[in-house]
Amino acid sequence: MFQPTGSGADVPTGSPAQANQREPIRLLMFGSLAGVREMIKNLHKRGFAEPNDWSQPIPTERSGEVMVTVTKYRT
User: Fold this and answer.
1) pLDDT the model gives residue 21
2) Quick check: 1 pLDDT over 80?
3) Quick check: 59 and 32 in contact, CB under 8 A?
């Protein structure tokens, strides 16, 4: 899934002061409006996120495609 980076900038790991803070993780979903709504309901049934936690659908440059986002928190 992820490929190791050879050289380049190191990814910051955070400081001990940040250890008590929740890290926001933003997730994006792209698809048809019907497909996105169906997947949001499916994920809700599995306990992933409340339907109202997702953003309003935003049209993309692709015909018939929308994007939604949700923020989850890493503790």
Assistant:
1) 87
2) no
3) no
> Mean pLDDT, to the nearest integer, of 1-5?
55
Tokens describing residue 59:
């049209």
The 3-class secondary structure across 13-60, one letter per residue, is CCCHHHCCCCEEEEEEEEECHHHHHHHHHHHHHCCCCCHHHCCCCEEC
Q: Tell me which residue has tokens 């997702």.
A: 54
Cβ atoms < 10 Å from Cβ of 45: 8
Query: Phi/psi of residue 15, each to 5°?
Result: -110, 165
Q: Which of 65, 60, 63 is nearest to 36 (CA)?
A: 65
Asked if residue 51 lies in contact with residue 40, where contact means CB atoms within 8 angstroms, the answer is: yes
3: which strand partners?
none
The answer to whether the beta carbons of residues 69 and 75 sit under 8 Å apart is: no
